[in-house]
Specification:
The complex is a heterotrimer of chains A (340), B (596) and C (264). Helices cover 52% and strands 12% of the residues of chain B. Chain B has 20 helices and 11 strands. Chain C has one domain: P-loop containing nucleotide triphosphate hydrolases (Rossmann fold), CATH 3.40.50. Chain C contains 10 helices and 10 strands. Classes of the chains: A mainly alpha (340), B alpha/beta (596), C alpha/beta (264).
Chain lengths: 340, 596, 264
């Protein structure tokens, strides 16, 4: 730190750092390439670990899947079909080759390919996750900022406590549990909204609410804290010194600077929501990957479990990558700093 | 320490959460003993029984009482969460904190491992463990512990990197302190608190995660049961007896909340120790305000007529009389500015000097309407260009104050890091005077050129971090001059700068004022700087003005009236100071307030 | 006591390589205070960090006593610590916030062994008195004392290691002006009493002139002028040194509006 300051601070006003723009471009690309490389390596590790684990799991997965009553010939035939009798390295590379071509394995029971399941069920899962994430962002950031501005300098303590209490409570209600409660209240008792399926707009209300509420609450808490921190920053005082109207100060000076921290956490929330959708889908019998996943777990169909787990991992990694890039685009300084 | 603990135990958050936690512990201890029989008793008459006085949460498929089963499940649920968190936290801390003592290469490797771990989705880890070990409660605990390791490791790594880069650890290394002692006495104590908070929060999160694993059917297996298992069972009968699902669900939420609130309580108690506590303003009583005594205006009178007569006395621009600023603090109202009075005439450059804590910056910010939101500002009289600043509405005040420009100390943060410098200047004419985009942008470029920034078109499109310190300070001056104010308030305008750059910036400020006939109030801790720039200097000490004199008097400091003002001048060595005698010092007992 | 020969320090690699310290030669005689003055980015702090071993050198030799510390590896922690110590700029961050003042000094004494705990207690009290603090200060945490007092504790802790050379890096910059004088006076007293050899680094030429016998002026990694304090302040030969002196605000000029009459 001290080191970079010493060097960066060379020169006075006469010969100020002149190379900023020129350097920025290459720095940005090297950041991008490094980040994509990291994601690919992680994905490779994920796939390898998944492969190794399935081999190490002991016993015979086909036997476990087909049950103790299945005839030995059928088990052997299925093993042959799946290539489980090949040498381990051959199996590994053919598996890796398959994954590269979108072949994530097959069901040990029905022989149906994971790819089929993904193609038919991924859209429903993505729709649920991304709509929920959108709701989270739209609710939490304005709410957190509003409360921060209104409670600045210890004003309106009652309002602050209500906000802290409500968001604190709901951020610790797990999504699937909230789903259960919502079903009980709105579908069973009040009969206002459908219990299951995704065939109407109304069917989205409860699953989206279940998946987004806890995240929205915790992100609103973070947004408030970040807004308060930003409001205390020197450049906000500078903006007040310029006698700008409050609205301009909040929108042009506070919001962009609190966004980095909020989106960083928002990104991890989105990743958590993609996987959290597994349970919520289960509650609402949503025709997404999650219900297939849970069903595979219940029937011990580890071929599907493994394949879908890798797909989920890939989605999460991709989300992380996109969020990192978005943040780097918004906060140009962080990319520049990270590389130094 | 005890004092701190007592304060902590008195906070409402701590009382609530400790009560809840105590209840949980008691339940875990006696639950299986008291309710085991009721929980296991099958009753064919009560199959899927709804909520009743007998079965508060209803009964399950075998007619067993759900409430009793929830009570019994407390022990298993809690123990599993505690074990998983303990294992995960311990492994994470070792992985994250130890590399701080090692070399760069070890740190980079550990960091790569942690990054990889963080990228592994929790669900994938859990499923892999399940595939490897089968479904059981041990599997669930191990899976949860593994998923906790990377985040704890990252936390410990960030915290210990902060300690690792600290000067006190560098000093310890230089002093030859052994690595073991460095770890136990330097690294661990300085990272302990946030980690304790995080462990508490993680227990709550762990409870929820375990219950969701059981809910998925990969955790605790029948005939054993934890809360998640009960929730799973209850969900099957959610249409007939919703309470069988909601009951266990509520208990899970409450238990998770108990740990969550406890963690928050610990965190906020730690924050309050570091001085960032929220003070209950209403409990402090009335803030100290300006003494409403109009008869006693002698202070202001002497300020208006400094010791040497001014050749021509023009209009009074700023009139401050009895200014008092109070802040709420844990120990009651603090008044960093007490009954301060002075005047600034048009075109006059006045310096305000004092050491840290003297109240000089607070005074200037209160006048400029930029005091901290929690501050209570009062005065017998506070007028600018004849307008009473204390009685104006927010809107009118903003209009009047647009004639008072403020130059802030550049600390790299005085400019918005996310906005181009040109845009930060241009928004003043654009928003305040409603000018068009192009006009505003060219006005900004002209302003940058006016403060002698070379290549202003290109510079206007850059971000603040692409500027050098001296250039940022010039940009801040240009910004304050955008609306051609009658009074410029400059808060430590050269403190962060090298002497050669400081000289250039001071010259610039002086020329700007001369050209525009502007008045200025310049705040600094360096009396020599003010001696160059100002016509009059006001000395502040502990929130009060102790001297207000003509700058020429600095050449003969023995003529200054107040001993503190004299000492302030004589304690600073310059190029002519006699090296054979010790520097004049101010007895440190005068500075009791300096301690943090 | 200290002899630096042709010291170079580079940061970064390949195209991004920057030479922060360029062929620096410097001598601190036994029992003398030598000043090193320069603006930010001049490389003066890098010189300090390299001398105490916190920064690797690219080339050159640093003799402390008769040993070249850059050439000699494999020295014990204790040996290294007895050779050179540094006093840091900010006493708010150079003391462990979780350790009482007395313990901070005591652990240094303990590291060098040979003293019973009672003897160490006496030594701690002695050291504190040496830096004009009362022995009761030992029981306090750094947060409980003022910045000036903390800096004196840092000096006492440094003396506890009995180093042959002390590097003082901007030790007054983080302090209020009135306290700066106290620290400068103390350092001079200690130097007279204990015959310390000190490299005093600062951006403040006036402070450096006041305390040092000779002064090195650094600019962009190079030492541009080296001479006695009087020579440097009265007869500067390098234009940069003259610019530094001219830029210093003078009390003699107070109220004469020199900023308008003498443009930069």
């Amino acid at each position: 730190m001290t080191v970079s300051l010493e060097v960066g601070g060379l020169g006075n006003s006469a010969q100020a750092p002149d190379n900023g723009r020129h350097v920025a471009h290459s720095v940005w690309w090297s950041f991008f390439i490094r980040r994509v490389g990291r994601m690919i390596i992680t994905l490779l590790v994920v796939v390898t670990v998944a492969f190794v684990v399935l081999r190490l799991s002991g016993g015979d997965p086909v036997r476990a899947a087909l049950g103790p009553t299945a005839a030995p010939e059928i088990v052997e035939q299925r093993r042959d079909q799946l290539g489980l009798n090949d040498p381990i390295l051959v199996q590994y590379f053919s598996y890796l080759w398959g994954v590269l071509h979108g072949d994530f394995g097959v069901s040990l029971i029905t022989g149906r390919s994971v790819g089929d399941i993904v193609v038919s069920r991924l859209p429903a899962t993505l729709a649920l996750s991304f709509i929920s994430f959108f709701v989270v962002l739209v609710v939490s950031i304005p709410l957190g900022m509003l409360v921060a501005v209104r409670t600045l300098g210890g004003k309106r303590r009652g309002e602050e406590m209500v906000f802290a209490g409500v968001t604190g409570f709901f951020s610790s209600v797990p999504d699937y549990l909230l789903g259960v409660m919502l079903v009980v209240v709105f579908s069973i008792t009040l009969k206002l909204l459908p219990v299951a399926g995704n065939d109407s707009a109304a069917a989205f209300v409860l699953p989206v609410a279940a998946l987004s509420l806890a995240s929205a609450c915790s992100l609103a808490r973070l947004a408030r804290i970040e807004a308060l921190n930003t409001l205390r920053d020197d450049y906000v005082r500078t903006a007040r010194g310029k006698r700008l109207p409050n609205r301009r100060i909040y929108l042009a000076h506070v919001l962009p600077n609190m966004l980095t921290a909020v989106l960083t956490v928002g990104g991890t929330l989105l990743a958590a929501m993609v996987t959290g959708s597994v349970l919520v889908e289960q509650v609402f019998n949503w025709p997404g990957m999650g219900t297939a996943f849970v069903q595979a777990i219940t029937t011990k169909d580890y071929g599907i479990v493994q394949g879908l787990a890798i797909v989920y991992a890939a989605i999460v990694l991709l989300v992380n990558l996109v969020v990192d890039i978005v943040i780097a685009l918004i906060d140009r300084r962080s990319t520049l700093l990270e590389s130094s | 320490m005890n004092h701190q603990l007592r304060d902590f135990l008195r906070s409402p958050l701590a009382i609530v959460s400790l009560t809840m936690l105590l209840g949980l512990v008691v339940l875990a201890a006696i639950g299986p003993v008291v309710w085991r029989d009721a929980a296991d008793a099958t009753n064919t008459d009560a199959m899927f029984a709804p909520v009743s006085a007998e079965h508060w949460f209803g009964a399950d498929a075998l007619g067993r009482d759900v409430l009793a089963r929830v009570m019994v499940a407390t022990r298993l649920s809690l123990v599993m969460a505690l074990v998983a968190t303990a294992v995960g936290a311990l492994a994470g801390i070792v992985l994250g904190a130890l590399p701080a003592l090692g070399g760069k290469r070890i740190q980079r490797f550990a960091s790569a491992v942690i990054n990889m771990g963080l990228a592994f989705p929790v669900l994938l880890v859990a499923m892999l463990v399940v595939i490897l070990l089968g479904t059981s409660k041990q599997t669930a605990v191990i899976a949860l512990a593994i998923t906790m390791v990377p985040s704890f490791a990252r936390l410990a790594q960030t915290l210990s990197a902060r300690v690792g880069g600290s000067e006190y650890l560098a000093a310890a290394r230089l002093l030859g302190i052994s690595p073991l002692r460095q770890f136990t006495r330097y690294v661990l104590p300085n990272i302990a608190e946030p980690i304790v908070v995080n462990v508490t929060l993680s227990i709550g999160a762990g409870l929820l995660a375990l219950s969701s694993l059981s809910f998925l059917g990969v955790g605790v297996q029948a005939p054993e049961y934890d809360w998640g298992r009960l929730l799973n069972d209850g969900f099957d009968q959610v249409y007939t007896s919703p309470m069988a699902a909601i009951g266990p669900g509520l208990v899970i939420v409450l238990a998770g909340l108990a740990f969550g609130i406890f963690g928050e309580a610990v965190a906020s108690s730690l924050r309050s120790k570091s001085g960032a506590s929220i003070v209950r303003v209403d409990a402090l009583g009335e803030p100290p305000r300006a003494v409403p005594d109009d008869a006693d205006d002698s202070n202001a009178a002497s300020a208006a007529a400094p010791s040497t007569p001014q050749p021509h006395t023009p209009e009074v621009l700023l009139d401050v009389c009895g200014l008092t600023v109070a802040f709420p603090s844990a120990a009651g109202w603090r008044t960093p500015v007490k009954d301060v009075s002075f005047r600034i005439c048009a075109g006059e450059i006045v310096g305000l000097v004092g050491e840290s804590g003297s109240g000089k910056s607070v005074t200037a910010m209160a006048i400029a309407g930029l005091a901290d939101p929690s501050a209570v500002v009062s005065a017998r009289r506070l007028t600018f260009r004849g307008q009473d600043l204390l009685s104006l509405s927010e809107r009118q005040k903003r209009l009047v104050l647009s004639d008072m420009g403020v130059v802030f100390q550049d600390s790299l943060t005085a400019l918005n890091p996310a906005m181009r410098v040109g845009a930060q200047l241009a928004e003043i004419p654009r928003i305040q005077q409603g000018k068009g985009h192009a006009d505003s942008a060219s006005a900004a470029v002209a302003a940058l050129a006016g403060v002698e920034i070379a290549d202003p078109e290109r510079r206007a499109k850059q971000f603040p971090h692409e500027f050098s310190g001296g250039m940022r300070q010039r940009a801040l001056i240009a910004m304050a001059e955008m609306s051609e104010p009658a009074l410029l308030i400059a808060d430590e305008p050269t403190t962060a700068l090298d002497v050669t750059v400081q000289h250039a910036v001071l010259s610039l400020l002086r020329r700007e004022c001369a050209q525009r006939g502007q008045a200025a109030l310049v705040i600094s801790h360096d009396i020599a700087v003010l001696g160059q720039l100002c016509q009059r200097i006001i000395v502040m000490y502990r929130g009060e003005i102790v001297e207000d004199f003509d700058t020429a008097l600095l050449r003969t400091p023995q003529d200054l009236r107040h001993p503190y003002a004299r000492a302030l001048v004589e304690s600073v060595p310059d190029m002519n100071t006699d090296k054979s005698v010790p520097l004049a010092t101010i007895s440190e007992t005068m500075f009791g307030g300096e301690a943090a | 006591m200290l002899r630096v020969e042709d010291l170079c320090v580079d940061f970064g690699t390949g195209h991004g390589r920057v030479r922060a310290v360029d062929s620096v030669n410097l001598v601190v005689p036994r029992g003398a205070i030598v000043g090193l003055v320069g603006e930010s980015g001049s490389g003066k702090s890098t010189v300090a960090r390299t001398i105490v071993g916190m920064q690797a050198a690219s080339s050159g030799r640093i003799f402390i006593g008769d040993t070249d510390v850059l050439a000699k590896h494999r020295v014990s922690r204790r040996e290294r610590a007895e050779r050179v110590q540094m006093i840091f700029q900010d006493p708010y961050s150079s003391l462990n916030p979780r350790m009482r003042v007395g313990e901070s000094i005591d652990e240094v004494l303990a590291t060098y062994g040979g003293l019973s705990s009672a003897q160490r207690r006496d030594s701690v009290a002695e050291l504190l008195q040496l830096v004009t603090l009362s022995p009761e200060t030992a029981a306090l945490f750094p947060q409980q004392i003022s910045g000036g007092m903390r800096q004196r504790v840092a000096i006492a802790r440094c003396l506890a290691a009995r180093p042959r050379l002390i590097v003082a890096d901007e030790i007054t910059s983080a302090l209020d002006v009135s306290v700066q004088g106290v620290i400068l006076n103390l350092l001079r007293d200690l130097q007279n009493k204990l015959e310390l050899s000190v490299l005093f680094i600062s951006h403040n030429l006036a402070a450096v002139r006041y305390i040092s016998e000779s002064i090195a002026v650094m600019q962009r990694g190079r030492i541009v002028e080296f001479g006695t304090a009087d020579d440097i302040s009265l007869r500067p030969s390098h234009p940069y040194t003259r610019a530094l002196i001219d830029a210093l605000p003078r009390l003699d000029d107070a109220g004469r509006d020199v900023l308008l009459s003498r443009p930069s």
